[in-house]
User: Fold this.
Amino acid sequence: AKEELLQLANQAYPSIVKRGGGARDLWTEVKGDFLICYLSVDPKEAMGANMLNTMLEALVNPLEDLSEGQGLMAILSNLATDALVTASCHIDYRFLSRDPKEAAEIAQKIALASQLAAVDPYRAATHNKGIFNGIDAVVLATGNDWRAIEAGGHTYASRTGQAQGLSNWIAHPDQQVLEGQLTLPMPIATKGGSIGLNPSVQVAHDLLGNPDAQTLARIIVSVGLAQNFAALKALVSTGIQHGHMKLQAKSLALLAGASPSEVAPVVQALLEDKPFNLEKAQAILENIRQIK
Assistant:
């Protein structure tokens, strides 16, 4: 009854069919005590949550009649494996360091860090969190559901039965190139929901050149790969705390009441006198103002 069920799904949400999308495939799988019916839908520029749920609910009664079973729930999955996006890059060693020997060492260490995330779930969790530091920001700014993207991404990272790093980095010493790749489910929308209502979201889309959903998904995964590269490069060279301590010092300077022109000298003084706290930042700021 596949064709009939697909027609019923499309009849439940006819507007998407007019836009060239709609239900594309339907299949069943038996897992444990459950007969699961999967529906694959092309939502075009929408994320598709309401669309999927409406179609699925329309199929409950027909499926109960066909299977002589009892429907348990009708809900989309955030593991959108039909919406996988891959970003890749090639970085010349010369961009890693001006010292050729150090550049080669950094490239090899980044590749090893990638291998570590593939075998150790404790490292994989933090490796992938760093990727989402970049992805979540763009997903949120463009009015999309960052929680859904994270849920799908982390589940995809565990598809082999163990959490693994989502990105893969390979050093090519002969070509003097570091190769990176990141694949993620990325069901992103440019229409629907609050996207057309929130002015700040519209600004974000304008800044990005108003891309279609597929292009926006590619941009987001590319940002995730870039964020991952930045984190790994810091980890295997200066260490992650080098950047974190600068941010902490800046936060303390601002909390102490430093003006924009005072932030830099307060931060510099704090970094030269570790460990630091708010009280020390206030004392440094007061001293700077007295000298003035």
The longest strand covers residues 22-31.
